[in-house]
């Protein structure tokens, strides 16, 4: 569901159970096996596992714009657990152009004075409704906060100077892509008074108070009376409200509503290239944002709150006060978006015989299946039939590797090979470090790297066969026992079988990482 972090205890083996000897698959015909004298047993395959850094991940939503049923998550803030890399999560986003923009009214009978009150960046939290308060107002719980919300993470909002295009500038026939380590042009700081915004997420942040201006006379627009109004989401849920520089945003937007820059989406996106919302600091909390709401009243947006003071002609022809109309223009965060992750080192060393798995651009693990430890098998299971095939240890390293196991054929039994009926990999969570199931990865994924014919050159990641042939049994989800995170198990029966029956010759190590939605 979300990108969380954990340390896994080293899984020392996988189980390949119910091993039987069978004729080479290509010699079986008519669904009849001519020898039914099967022997069954199980073997342990030892693993070699090591962590490696993830340099970057694709972090944009361009592919998802054509598939709105699947949307990426965006986080904001800083998470420093001490056990893992510090994560600073930021994002860049275009704004949507809205219509019917005006800052004056040319009616004859009614004179309207438009006054820009405040400009804010509104970012709804991901939150779940959870009952009501004593006064009957809805109560919410913020989803998936990582870190300490009592420590402020610093947020800066910049005008983005990097042009965001859905076409690759080097090959315009292809779609563009933005990776999590891309550097964006911080053109102008937009925070009010040039002060960083202190992010302390609270589920009670459901109201933002706007200071508004009532003009006292049609000919005296600078003589005003202040009053306030409340800004809320339609859902009444919590949100972040970051005040922006009114004078600068007036110059960039308000004063240009009737200019060519606001005449079309293309013109607008070239003129104002979006926002870069940047997290800074060394500690705080990391929270997911709801940037994909289809309700316009709940959407993330740059909001221009303004007040219309209206005057109408009296009997003597003088303009007299009629009313005030609090209003707003809301430019939604839409179009191209991309996350940016900056990672720092963890302050605590990973225990020996453990490896770290971290989402975003943290760490992944390479899982190399070494094979059957022949000496260990002789000591623990001296009657295991696999010991009859020690001669297949061609490099004499004391192990039967997957490649060597796949070559086994029994000349005394019609050259039968090994048939795998069940195989699994299990990785155990280090509960000394991680005992809360809510802050470890809810799901991992394991995959192979596709290679070319020389079996050396890596081409691209590829799901192992079980992920699609036996998806209901494939696994990878966190198993919780006694309210503690226990393990992750993957069924890899078809993956191993394909190696043994020569349908696959890719014996390269597997890769294990957090499943990121």
What do you see in this structure?
The chain has helices spanning 62-65, 246-252, 265-271, 374-380, 402-406, 466-469, 471-474, 493-500, and strands at residues 5-9, 13-17, 20-22, 43-53, 74-79, 86-95, 110-124, 127-132, 138-142, 146-147, 153-160, 167-168, 171-175, 186-189, 197-199, 208-217, 220-231, 239-243, 275-280, 285-289, 301-313, 319-344, 354-358, 363-373, 399-400, 417-419, 422-429, 444-451, 458-463, 475-481, 484-491, 510-514. By secondary structure, the chain is mainly beta. It folds into two domains: 5-54 and 362-514, no CATH class; 74-344, no CATH class. Strands 1, 2, 4, 23, 24, 25, 27, 28, 29, 30, 31 and 32 form a twelve-stranded antiparallel sheet that branches. β21 and β22 (319-344) form a beta hairpin.
Q: Are there runs of 5+ residues with pLDDT below 50, and where? A: 1-38
Structural class: mainly beta
The tally of helices reads 8
Radius of gyration: 31 Å
Overall domain count: 2
Please tell me what the overall shape is. elongated
What's the assembly state of these chains? Answer: single chain
Percent of residues in helices comes to under 10%
End-to-end separation: 6 Å
Strand content: 35-45%
* Largest sheet entry: 12 strands, antiparallel
Give a nutshell description of this structure.
Helices cover 9% and strands 44% of the residues.
């Amino acid at each position: 569901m979300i990108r969380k972090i954990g340390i896994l205890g080293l899984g020392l083996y996988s189980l390949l159970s119910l091993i039987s000897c069978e004729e080479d698959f290509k010699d079986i015909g008519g669904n009849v096996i001519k020898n039914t004298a099967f022997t069954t047993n199980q073997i342990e395959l030892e693993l070699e596992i090591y962590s490696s850094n993830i340099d970057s991940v694709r972090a944009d939503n361009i592919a998802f714009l054509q598939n709105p049923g699947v949307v990426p998550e965006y986080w904001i803030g800083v998470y420093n657990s001490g056990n893992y890399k510090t994560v600073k999560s930021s994002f860049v986003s275009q704004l949507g152009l809205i219509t019917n923009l005006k800052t004056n009214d040319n009616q004859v009978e009614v004179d309207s004075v438009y006054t820009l009150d405040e400009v804010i960046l509104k970012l709804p939290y991901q939150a779940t409704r959870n009952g009501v308060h004593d006064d009957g107002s809805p109560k919410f719980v913020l989803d998936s906060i990582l870190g300490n919300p009592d420590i402020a993470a610093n947020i800066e909002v910049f005008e983005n100077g990097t042009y965001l295009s859905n076409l690759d500038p080097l090959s315009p026939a292809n779609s563009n892509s933005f990776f999590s380590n891309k550097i964006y042009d911080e053109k102008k700081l937009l925070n009010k008074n040039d002060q960083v915004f202190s992010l302390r997420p609270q589920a009670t942040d459901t109201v933002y108070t706007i200071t508004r201006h009532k003009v006292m006379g049609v000919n005296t627009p600078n003589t005003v009376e202040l009053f306030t109004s409340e800004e809320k989401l339609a859902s009444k849920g919590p949100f972040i409200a970051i005040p922006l520089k009114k004078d600068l945003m007036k110059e960039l937007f308000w004063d240009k509503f009737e200019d060519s820059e606001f005449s079309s989406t293309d013109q607008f996106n070239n003129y104002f290239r979006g926002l870069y919302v940047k997290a800074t600091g060394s500690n705080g909390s990391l929270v997911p944002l709801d940037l994909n709401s289809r309700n316009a009243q709940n959407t993330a947006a740059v909001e221009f709150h303004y007040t219309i003071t209206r005057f109408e002609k009296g009997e003597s022809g003088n303009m007299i006060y009629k009313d005030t109309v609090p209003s707003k223009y809301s430019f939604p965060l839409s179009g191209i978006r991309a996350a940016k992750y900056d990672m720092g080192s963890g302050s605590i060393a990973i225990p020996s015989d453990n490896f770290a798995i971290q989402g975003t651009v943290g760490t992944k693990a390479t899982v190399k299946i070494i094979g059957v430890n022949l000496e260990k098998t002789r000591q623990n299971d001296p009657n295991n039939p696999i010991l009859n095939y020690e001669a297949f240890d061609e490099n004499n390293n004391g192990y039967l590797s997957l490649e060597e196991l796949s070559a086994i054929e029994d000349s005394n039994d019609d050259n039968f090979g090994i048939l795998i009926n069940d195989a699994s990999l299990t990785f155990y969570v280090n509960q000394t470090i991680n005992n809360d199931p809510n802050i470890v990865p809810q799901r991992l994924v394991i995959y192979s790297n596709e290679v070319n014919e020389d079996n050396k050159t890596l081409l691209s990641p590829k799901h192992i066969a079980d992920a699609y042939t036996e998806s209901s049994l494939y696994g990878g989800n966190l198993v919780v026992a006694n309210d503690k995170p226990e393990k992750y198990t993957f069924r890899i029966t078809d993956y191993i079988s394909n190696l043994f029956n020569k349908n696959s010759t890719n014996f390269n190590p597997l890769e294990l990482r957090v499943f990121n939605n």
